[in-house]
Write a structure and sequence with these properties.
Layout (H helix, E strand, L loop, with lengths): L7 H13 L4 H9 L20 E4 L2 E3 L2 H11 L6 E5 L5 H10 L4 E6 L2 H13 L5 E5 L12 E6 L8 H5 L1 E11 L4 E8 L3 E9 L12
Parallel strand pairs: 3-4, 3-6, 4-5, 6-7
Antiparallel strand pairs: 1-2, 7-8, 8-9
Helix pairs in contact: 1-2, 2-4
The structure holds S-adenosyl-L-homocysteine.
The site of S-adenosyl-L-homocysteine has 25 residues, from strand 2, helix 4 and strand 4.
Length: 215
């Protein structure tokens, strides 16, 4: 027998809360389709639909649902987009992006901690996402072999925008990236003729560690 979706009600409550925060219908529907409880450690499943971050191992966290939702809205994801995510973590944010870009699109998500490469790969497989590829490595270098990208989503805080990411973003593309060490701001970066950078809000992310990140 098909496993019943035991967290359906909790998920609906989470989505209703996000609706009141002004999140778009597309993103709300996508988040209503992703079973967040499959992306947290089993002992935390009952907390999976609270609007806060949770530990996922290796000192890292799965971002709060409202942060995932806001970042997806800023990116203006479209069906068929090719997206690069830095920081796969649990794989949850990549799954939400996958819902928004559809089966014609593809997400490449880079993770530096082997423990979380395994965790995210397993979670995405068990939840049935086939258009997400988890790559082990330093995301500050981007993925030149798959560039250019329509959208780039950085889910850890950088000292500044890593140059390879800017280079690998399509003209007309969008990137969201938290910048700062202790006090961080979420930036929307748009690549047009020039580069437009807009600060959106204060945030708290784990650090981006790598060649063009923190050391
Ligand atoms: N998007 C994730 C949130 C993960 S937290 C989710 O939905 O669960 C940020 C992640 O970025 C952590 O897993 C951390 O290990 C990873 N990270 C930090 N620096 C990185 C780098 N240079 N390249 C790839 N991943 C990095």
């Amino acid at each position: 027998m098909e496993m019943e979706d035991e967290y359906k009600e909790e998920r609906k409550r989470m989505v209703d809360l996000l609706r009141r925060r002004g999140i778009s219908t597309e993103v709300l529907e996508a988040m209503n389709r992703v079973k967040r409880h499959l992306f947290v450690p089993p002992e935390l499943r009952d907390q999976a639909y609270g609007d806060y971050p949770l530990p996922i191992g290796g000192g890292q966290t799965i971002s709060a649902p409202h942060m995932v939702a806001m970042m997806c809205d800023y990116l203006k994801l479209e069906r068929g987009d090719k997206v690069l995510e830095i920081g796969a973590g649990s794989g949850y944010h990549a799954a939400v992006i996958a819902e928004l870009i559809g089966t014609e699109g593809r997400v490449y998500t880079v993770e530096r901690l082997p423990l979380l490469v395994d965790f995210s790969t397993r979670n995405l497989r068990d939840a049935g996402y086939k258009n997400v590829v988890v790559v082990s490595g330093d995301g500050t270098l981007g993925l030149p072999e798959h560039a250019p990208f329509d959208k780039i989503c950085v889910t850890c805080a950088a000292p500044s925008v890593p140059p390879p990411l800017l280079e690998q973003l399509k003209t007309g593309g969008r990137m969201v990236i938290p910048i700062g060490r202790y006090i961080q701001e979420l930036y929307l970066v748009e690549k047009k003729n020039g580069i437009e950078k807009q600060s959106k809000c204060e945030v708290a992310f784990v650090p981006l560690i790598g060649r063009f990140g923190f050391r």
